[in-house]
Amino acid sequence: MPPRSIGRDTVCYDMAYGRGDTAFMRWAAERGSKHAYKGWGMLVEQAAESYLLWHGVRPETKPVMGALDRL
Q1: Are residues 31 and 51 both part of a single domain?
Q2: Angstrom distance (rounded) from CA 56 to CA 65
Q3: Within this chain, do residues 12 and 22 fall inside the same structural domain, yes or no?
Q4: What range defines the domain where residue 64 resides?
Q5: Which of 36, 30, 42, 43 lies closest to 3, judged by CA?
């Protein structure tokens, strides 16, 4: 993507998971984005939806996201 395509209000969402900021998140922040996120949220929410489909119960995701934030 051209660097000029990223601005202060551009939301950048990386589908990668891991500790700390991803290379894409750092790249977006270096270009001014104040809203760069990694893919933990999507991973956790998709897992919760799958669990709901298989077991009929949707698990709480806030505790999981809190645990991941502490990594």
Answers
A1: no
A2: 21
A3: yes
A4: 39-71
A5: 30
